[in-house]
């Protein structure tokens, strides 16, 4: 377990275009993992190994690699920055111990930075903030630090101050060691430490004092030394920063420019010094055989195995499953128990991964992140030693907000399309597929236009299927607005034995903030409905959620409370109660004053200040609510909530309004009641489409 102390499992996360992949490429180079620095633009980065990633210059899928720095082994996962691929970030952070949050020195904290921070907090992942692009015009690290505190609520701890900025950025001053750091050589490979130049001496002294005062808030020892005006030893500073970072009381902040090869080596030092090892993390699993009791896991290679499958990739030779081993040792050729599927699976191969290159190994120990072959599973499945039945908390997957119809141009390609869609659903929990009952169209659903566009392009390239794609449609939801009682009896006589089921209770609208779209509560007492029929009632209710009676959209925000009912000794069955529940739900839901909900997006628009007026006006005309504006050196950032239905084609609109100088990002925020006039229009449209299909 000694070597676990020197192991780091980290993710590199950021808003799109913050330089995250460029940073990762430099890490690979300086650690000796690669011998050539590759750029995102041009030949494509090593970690962006998909052809689409190289063409578009964006990260679409997370990529894993392992590097060594000094005496430490670091497993790195480079995650996408675009919000449409947020599930890649989500599942990576679920299995990581620490992270580097990359921020642009000009743009600061952007919409995806906020999303990533929320994901880090969801899984209690400590982070180091790296302010990148210090060489850019308008670089303002002080402003970024202020945003980290105000927008993300972090207690920042700057460990460096820059020497110069923009084109004058020379390097940085290490506040702990009180040294100036320069980067020499063609690719910044030679790190040089010198005395602090006189022009920065006073600023460095003030910044160091501020750092020590911040540390004194989490360390009584440092506070005493400061009060006694004694020197604070560097070892104590490092120890305190590490403890504060792991406890998420502090967020160390560093600066640099990955593209200009400045600041990467000190960042690697900080990753090894301050981010946790597997030994520093408290992980628990639930015991499925003991009323879901919490079981603490130990990163001990000798303990019984517990591992999580967090990412699936279908390749030419079969499914590759990425796993994090939390406890025990994963061995090639051994059978393990999948606690969700409730079945055994044999691990035929274990692979150490570097982007798209793989190396066979015989075993993986606690703390390792590896890929395995020979198992069929889903994202979030737990594998454990035979004889135990543990499950780890699964991975959060956001609901898709946009739909697209897809049809192959040749009938012979239907099988290939089906194969592709099934594969993508297994790989990506935010990608959904269903067949419209009225139109018989195949509908794909995802997180945004780019998300679905990428999958359509992959179907064309990887499966050689030419498709016709419909216009993007908003994925609305249906929800009740008032509590409604139900008393429904299903009675059917068909020759021999009949069907009988009777349910009594109420439908209760859930609060919009409730994370679950459906809640079932059983309050039946005295055996009025036998216990073996209760799951069928829940199943009938739950299945009715897939298609609401208003306009055929998925239902959310429903609690069904079963209070009473009756049964028949001969005619009652699980099927009868399931049918009864389905019919009851449809009838009750119609009485509950249902409404349509529309997805509302958090939109962040960055434009030259001279275009602020027309852009703000255009957002308001799209039923948008302006939340605030912020000035950033000649640019204005507008934050707003806008319905998704109003955002189609916005990139073209914005380009024409700003002479091609504006940009925007958006992410799903919430579902909100659709104004009644729009609801009527949508219902009429859905009904008209259904009639047209019926005639055809």
Q: Could you give a short description of this structure?
A:
With 696 residues, the protein is an alpha+beta fold.
Portion in strands: 25-35%
Q: Can you tell me the CATH class of the largest domain?
A: Alpha Beta
Question: How many helices does DSSP assign?
Answer: 16
**Which strands sit side by side, in order, in the main sheet?**
18-17-23-14-15-22-19-20
Average predicted confidence as pLDDT: 86
* Category by helix and strand content: alpha+beta
| Rg, Å, rounded | 28 Å
The largest sheet, given as strand count, sense and whether it forms a barrel, is: 8 strands, antiparallel
Helix content: 25-40%
CATH architecture of the largest domain: 3-Layer(aba) Sandwich
The 3D shape can be described as: globular
Distance between the termini: 68 Å
Oligomer: single chain
The CATH homologous superfamily of the largest domain is termed P-loop containing nucleotide triphosphate hydrolases
List unreliable stretches of 5+ residues. 40-50, 56-60
CATH topology of the largest domain: Rossmann fold
Overview of the structural elements:
This protein is α+β, with helices and mostly antiparallel strands. The protein is 28% helix and 33% strand. Strands 18-17-23-14-15-22-19-20 form an eight-stranded antiparallel β-sheet. Strand 31 (484-492) and strand 32 (499-509) form a beta hairpin.
């Amino acid at each position: 377990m000694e070597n676990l102390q020197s192991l780091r499992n980290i993710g590199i996360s950021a808003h799109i275009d913050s330089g995250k992949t460029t940073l990762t490429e430099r890490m690979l180079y300086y650690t000796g993992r690669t011998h050539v620095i590759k750029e995102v633009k041009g030949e494509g980065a090593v970690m962006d190994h998909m052809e689409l990633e190289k063409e578009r210059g964006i990260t679409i899928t997370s990529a894993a690699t392992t590097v060594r720095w000094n005496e430490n082994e670091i497993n790195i996962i480079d995650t996408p920055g675009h919000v449409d691929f947020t599930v890649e970030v989500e599942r990576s952070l679920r299995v990581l111990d620490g992270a580097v949050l990359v921020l642009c020195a000009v743009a600061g904290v952007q919409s995806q930075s906020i999303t990533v921070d929320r994901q880090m907090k969801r899984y209690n992942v400590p982070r180091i903030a790296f302010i990148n692009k210090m060489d850019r015009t308008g670089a303002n690290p002080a402003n970024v630090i202020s945003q980290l505190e105000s927008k993300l609520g972090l207690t920042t701890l700057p460990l460096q101050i820059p020497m110069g900025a923009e084109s004058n950025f020379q390097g940085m001053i290490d506040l702990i060691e009180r040294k100036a750091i320069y980067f020499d050589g063609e690719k910044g490979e030679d790190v040089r430490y010198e005395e602090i130049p006189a022009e920065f001496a006073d600023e460095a002294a003030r910044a160091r004092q501020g750092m020590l005062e911040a540390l004194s808030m989490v360390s009584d020892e440092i506070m005493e030394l400061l009060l006694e005006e004694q020197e604070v030893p560097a070892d104590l500073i490092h120890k305190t920063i590490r403890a504060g970072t792991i406890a998420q009381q502090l967020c160390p902040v560093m600066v640099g420019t990955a593209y200009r090869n400045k600041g990467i080596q000190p960042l690697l030092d900080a990753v090894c010094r301050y981010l946790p090892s597997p030994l520093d993390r408290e992980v628990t699993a639930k015991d499925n055989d003991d009323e879901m009791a919490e079981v603490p896991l130990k990163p001990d290679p000798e303990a019984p195995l517990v591992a999580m499958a967090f990412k699936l990739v279908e390749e030419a030779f079969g499914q590759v499953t990425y796993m994090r081993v939390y406890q025990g040792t994963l061995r090639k050729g051994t059978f393990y128990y999948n606690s969700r599927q409730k079945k055994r699976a044999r691990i035929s191969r274990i692979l150490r991964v570097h982007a798209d290159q793989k190396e066979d190994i015989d075993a993986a120990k606690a703390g390792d992140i590896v890929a395995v072959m020979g198992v069929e599973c889903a994202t979030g499945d737990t594998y454990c030693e035979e004889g135990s039945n543990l499950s780890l908390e699964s991975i959060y997957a956001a609901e898709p907000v946009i739909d697209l119809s897809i049809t192959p141009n040749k009938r012979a390609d239907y099988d290939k399309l089906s194969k592709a869609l099934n594969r993508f659903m297994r790989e990506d929990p935010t990608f959904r597929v269903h067949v419209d009952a009225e139109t018989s169209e195949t509908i794909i659903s995802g997180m945004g236009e780019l998300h679905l566009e990428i999958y359509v392009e992959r179907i064309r390239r990887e499966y050689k299927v030419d498709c016709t794609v419909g216009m993007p449609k908003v994925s609305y939801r249906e929800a009740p607005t008032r509590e409604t009682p139900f008393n429904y009896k299903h009675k059917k006589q068909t020759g021999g034995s009949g069907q009988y089921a009777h349910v009594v209770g109420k439908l209760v609208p859930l609060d919009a903030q409730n994370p679950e779209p459906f809640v079932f509560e059983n309050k039946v007492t005295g055996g009025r409905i036998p216990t073996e029929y209760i799951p069928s009632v829940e199943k009938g209710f739950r299945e009715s959620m897939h298609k609401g009676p208003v306009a055929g959209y998925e239902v959310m925000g429903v609690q069904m409370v079963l209070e009473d009912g009756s049964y028949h000794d001969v005619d009652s069955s699980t099927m009868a109660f399931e049918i009864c529940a389905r019919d009851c739900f449809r009838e009750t839901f119609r009485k509950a004053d249902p409404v349509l909900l529309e997805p509302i997006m958090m939109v962040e628009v960055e434009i030259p200040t001279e275009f602020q007026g027309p852009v703000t006006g255009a957002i308001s005309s799209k039923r948008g609510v302006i939340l605030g504006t912020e000035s950033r050196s000649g640019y204005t950032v507008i934050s707003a909530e806008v319905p998704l239905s109003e955002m189609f084609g916005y990139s073209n609109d914005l380009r024409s309004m700003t002479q091609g100088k504006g940009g925007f990002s958006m992410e799903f925020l919430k579902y909100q009641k659709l104004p009644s006039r729009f609801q009527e229009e949508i219902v009429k449209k859905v009904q008209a489409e259904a009639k047209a299909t019926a005639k055809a």
